[in-house]
Design brief:
Blueprint lengths: L1 E5 L7 E7 L12 H12 L9 E6 L2 E8 L6 H18 L4 E5 L1 H6 L3 H14 L9 H5 L6 E5 L3 H26 L7 H13 L4 E5 L1 H6 L3 H7 L7 E7 L7 E6 L1 E5 L8 H4 L7 H15 L5 E11 L10 E4 L5 E4 L6 H16 L3 E6 L3 H7 L4 E5 L2 H14 L3 E3 L17 E2 L7 H10 L7 E5 L5 E2 L9 E2 L4 H12 L5
Bound molecules: zinc ion.
Zinc ion binds next to loops.
Amino acid sequence: MKLKHTVNFIKKHTVAIFVKVEKEEPKVCTFNEEYIKLFNSLVKDKYYTPSTPFAFGFASNTRVIFITYREMKNYMYETWKNAGASLIKIMKDLHIDDIEVDMAELFAEIASEESYIQFCLGMILSSYSFDNYLGDKRLKEKTVIKNILLVSGDKKDTENAIAKANQIANCIFWARDMVNEPSNVINSLTFVDRAKKQAESRKITTTVLTEKELKAANMNGLLGVNAGSKNPPRLFIAQYKKARAKKHILLVGKGITFDTGGMSLKPADSMLGMKDDMAGAAAVCGALFLISDMNLDANVTVLCPLTDNKTGSAAINPGDVLKMCNGVTVEVVNTDAEGRLILADALAYGIKKFNPDFAIDIATLTGACSIALGRNATGLMSNDEVLTKALVDAGNDTYERVWELPMFDEYKEQIRSDIADIKNTGGRLAGTITAAQFLSCFTEGAKWAHLDIACTSISESDNKYLSKGATGVGVYLLAKTVEKLVDVQKV
Ligand SMILES: [Zn+2]
């Protein structure tokens, strides 16, 4: 899809004009008299009412569509993203692949540069579809949107909004693609290849720890989970550095490229879809690329522990004990609670080696988080108020909203083991929190937050600017969080 600016209407095919539904008397704002006349006649003949999603008519042989958009109180940016998304939906429904958008109405309402970016972002994000494995016949059935022209006298602001929205969307699309790819394509090695390629194009430095180095670093959590697999384990490290950086932030993403559950095997129905268990790793990489593209004044280090969780003959068994890289011993009571084992090693390793001002991990970690929060919020657990506030604010700005769960000490009792320091699950009660309590044994001394995206990493349907499949959650959220943390004065 090409999104471009133009000063004058070309009136080639179709023109779109937005109408805000809250207005008592429907009114449309455009600099084109003919379109105002057309709109008023549609209202008079009741073809347009504030409750219709769109209405259209013809003016000078051009089809003109009036599209409603709704304000969402307290979430200004989301209003604009949804307005952009509604345009794409109508284009797809009506099989329109080329359109000119009259920006006069939106300019009368758009309050800031950021709102304009969000409007463009809503359009671009909605145009995503993962078609890598569709044959020609299936591809032909799809409406592919070719051109959107934004008609406006303001060239500079429009081009700026388009460029910035593209920057954000490109990194989100990279993460969506990684998660949507099946596990016979994305494994620990191909993940590293693809992430490295993106990093190198941005002058982000990368290091990869292989089995030998992981053994030397005593990363027995990662090695233990990998024991039943044919694919080797990897720790992917990517670093973005700025000479005038004010903060160093560590981002750790869970990279289980497929989760069978290991010896505590998942039932078939729950196993389908487990290619998405590396959505955290995809999110931190996508966020790092965006942070680099936004040229933020921070040092950011990304760690992705990568492996699949399989049942090969060397696989660990329930009840086995692992000594993790910081010396803590873990009784693995359930091999399907593997994500926290690889995250624990990566967090302990990263905090010790890089001594960051803030550490954040993100993971498709617990089914319990889906039960607690559903698809509309990511679980947040943290030991630091400044970091919590940055994540909550960034969540509201990007509409990748997060919700804080308590980290009371008493929850830790659920993960006491009889034969080791801790065990890797705390039972059904508060499963999301006890997983975070487990991770807290590996983040001592650090200002740290944990994000559980078990339910927000996937959309079950095409919904506004999300397509069915991977959402790319975390990319924009983490980049915005880092942007906010850069300006935090006291640490
Ligand atoms: Zn699992």
